[in-house]
């Protein structure tokens, strides 16, 4: 098997037929043996039924049905586990990752003999608010991450079997696939493309899910949340020392402040700082608890090969 394509799917019945037909057409032109691993992430519509019907006509389809909706990151991990190809493509199932780019990704990794080629977005077709949030996240994440991160790189990529094997060694519950892909190292190349908007249907990555994914990325690959606590604490100490100096000068010059306003401001400031610390520490404790539980990242209901 030369090439495997992993596609996580959740309620994508509106675009599924178009996606599989476009993908099959482009993969046939490669002239290489291939498989398409579609992971049904607990869809509530007829996504799974459509996949099984198409599988009867396209034997290269492999369908992995999860027991419930575990999320995009878990579905990608499940798909990688069931691939057999020498090279593995990961792409979204909403047609925003154009299937015709797989030929370019395959040509690039075959030419460079590298391990990862990521598709970097130069332009995006989504609405302005979503583009704004994503651009802000990538700017922040690139600057605060401990490892060098690719800006505007999502899940769409091609990887060698060596890179896939390395990624499968990661067992954490809170996953961010692009961050893990960069963390493993190896030779990493890129191609640039314009990302279109969805062809049909509703976006499954809501604002809430996007913010949750951004939090997973930052907490997993950056020290900055805990460093922020330290810096706020130091700032509080500086403000407290300045307040002492101001109070002593006012006392000796007879301009001592009257009332409770200054006291309330100081109490409010330190109270808010402490609550911020507790919230961040609580987030870390929760994530540690999730990892210590060692629950499965996903559960497979059935595999149709």
Automatic annotation (TrEMBL):
InterPro entries: Glyco_trans_2-like, Glycosyltransferase_2, Nucleotide-diphossugar_trans. The keyword Transferase applies. One of its GO terms (cellular component) is plasma membrane. GO terms for molecular function: glycosyltransferase activity. It comes from the Bacteria. This is Dolichol-phosphate mannosyltransferase. Residues 4-164 form the Glycosyltransferase 2-like domain. It is a multi-pass membrane protein. It is found in: Membrane. The chain crosses the membrane at residues 228-249, 261-286. The keyword GTP-binding does not apply. Keywords: Glycosyltransferase, Membrane, Transferase, Transmembrane, Transmembrane helix. It comes from Draconibacterium orientale. Its main location: membrane. The lineage of its organism: Bacteria, Pseudomonadati, Bacteroidota, Bacteroidia, Marinilabiliales.
């Amino acid at each position: 098997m030369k090439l495997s394509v992993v596609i996580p799917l959740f309620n994508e019945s509106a675009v599924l037929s178009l996606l599989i037909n476009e993908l099959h057409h482009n993969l046939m032109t490669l002239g290489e043996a291939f498989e398409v691993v579609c992971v049904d992430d607990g869809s509530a519509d007829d996504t799974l039924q459509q996949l099984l019907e198409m599988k009867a006509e396209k034997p290269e389809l492999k369908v992995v049905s999860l027991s419930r909706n575990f999320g995009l990151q878990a579905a990608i991990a499940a798909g990688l586990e069931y691939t057999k190809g020498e090279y593995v493509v990961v792409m979204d199932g909403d047609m925003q990752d154009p299937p015709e780019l797989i030929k370019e990704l395959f040509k690039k990794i075959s030419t460079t003999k590298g391990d990862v080629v990521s598709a970097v977005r130069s332009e995006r077709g989504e609405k302005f608010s979503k583009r704004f949030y994503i651009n802000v996240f990538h700017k922040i994440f690139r600057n605060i991450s401990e490892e060098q991160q690719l800006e505007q790189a999502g899940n769409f990529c091609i990887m060698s079997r060596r890179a896939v094997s390395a990624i499968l060694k990661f067992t954490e519950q809170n996953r961010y696939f692009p961050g893990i892909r960069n963390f493993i190292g190896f030779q990493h190349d890129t191609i640039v493309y314009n990302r279109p908007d969805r062809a049909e249907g509703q976006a499954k990555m809501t604002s809430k899910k996007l913010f949750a994914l951004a939090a997973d990325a930052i907490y997993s690959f950056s020290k900055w949340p805990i460093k922020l606590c330290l810096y706020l604490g130091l700032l509080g100490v500086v403000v407290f020392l300045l307040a002492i100096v101001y109070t002593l000068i006012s006392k000796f010059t007879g301009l001592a402040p009257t009332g409770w306003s200054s006291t309330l401001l100081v109490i409010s400031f330190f109270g808010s700082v402490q609550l911020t610390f507790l919230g961040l520490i609580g987030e870390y404790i929760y994530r540690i608890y999730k990892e210590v539980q060692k629950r499965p990242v996903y559960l497979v209901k059935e595999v149709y090969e």
